[in-house]
Every structure is written in C-alpha cells, then in structure tokens.
C-alpha cells in the first residue's frame, strides 16, 4: 500500500520508518527539509518539501482514495483540515490524524475513525506504569 504522511514529526517519522520496514511505499511531506532528519538513515521513501494541505501537490502525486494518509504535524488544526480534505476530495478512508487535545480527540472519536491522541495515550501508559 502507498501511504502519504504529512509531517516529519517524531511520530510521523517513526510511522514512516515502520511502514517502510513492512514494505509499504511511503511518501513524507514536510514544510521544512530539517524534518527529514528524523527519518532513519536508511529511509528509501520519497521526501517532499511542501504542504500536505496543498491539493495541487496531492494531485501531482496521483493521490487516490486507495492510498493511506496520515496527518502528523505538530498542528492539530492542520491535521484535521488535511484529513478532512483527503476524505472529501478523494474519498480516502485509510486515514490517521494526530489530535493532541484529549477532549477534542474524544469528541472526534465519537463520529469518526483514525483519531490518534498521543497526549491521552501517554497519560494512560504513565498511569499504568505508576500503578503497576
């Protein structure tokens, strides 16, 4: 499967490396070339400087509803906008978006799939570690 990841954040880069190791075609888009430094040295996927919210860029990449898309920037508003765009424009259903506010993430999870809340997940794991 081909997956486009918007944002070479710590999480986005780690997901990109994991998917590539599982033999998926991975494209990482970031507005800064410095973000690509977070990818592993052996990363063979495509690295594109730009914005994943740019419909022209996605069109150039021949993005389709069969591709996967992850919005992994440090801006949850950009993540929300990007995923909404690919779902509406391309009919893409294989999506993941980072939402950092746990209350906002909970509200989104009630109406859609693909919400990842690192803040909530860290709190759960920390609580488990402290009470185990």
Brief descriptors of the model:
single chain; 132 residues; alpha/beta; Rossmann fold; 6-stranded parallel β-sheet; 5 helices; 20% strand; globular
Entry summary:
The chain is of the alpha/beta class.
Structure description:
It is a single chain. The protein is α/β, with parallel strands linked by helices and 132 residues long. It has a 6-stranded parallel sheet, sandwiched between helices. It is built from 5 helices and 6 strands, in the order E-H-E-E-H-E-H-E-H-E-H. It has one domain: NAD(P)-binding Rossmann-like Domain (Rossmann fold, 3-Layer(aba) Sandwich). Strand 4 (68-71), helix 3 and strand 5 form a beta-alpha-beta unit. Helices cover 42% and strands 20% of the residues. It has helices at residues 10-21, 55-60, 76-90, 102-109, 118-131, and strands at residues 2-6, 25-30, 46-49, 68-71, 94-98, 115-116. The N and C termini lie far apart (38 Å).
The number of helical runs is 5
Largest sheet: 6 strands, parallel
CATH homology-level superfamily? NAD(P)-binding Rossmann-like Domain
% residues in beta strands: 15-25%
Order of helices and strands: EHEEHEHEHEH
Going by CATH, the architecture would be 3-Layer(aba) Sandwich
Number of strands: 6
User: Which structural class do the helices and strands define?
Assistant: alpha/beta
Quote the average pLDDT. Answer: 94
Distance N to C terminus: 38 Å
The percent of residues in helical segments reads 40-55%
Under CATH, the topology is which? Answer: Rossmann fold
């Amino acid at each position: 499967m081909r997956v486009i990841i918007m944002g070479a954040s710590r999480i986005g880069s780690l997901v990109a490396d994991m998917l590539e190791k599982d033999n998926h075609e991975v494209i990482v888009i970031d507005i800064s070339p410095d973000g690509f430094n977070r990818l592993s040295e052996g990363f063979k996927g495509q690295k594109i400087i730009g914005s994943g919210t740019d419909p022209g860029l996605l069109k150039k990449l021949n993005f389709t509803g069969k591709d996967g898309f992850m919005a992994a920037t440090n801006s949850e508003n950009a993540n929300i906008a990007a995923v909404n765009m690919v779902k509406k424009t391309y009919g893409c259903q294989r999506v993941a978006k980072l939402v950092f506010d746990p209350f906002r993430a909970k509200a989104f999870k009630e109406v859609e799939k693909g919400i990842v809340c690192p803040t909530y997940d860290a709190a759960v794991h920390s609580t488990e570690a402290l009470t185990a």
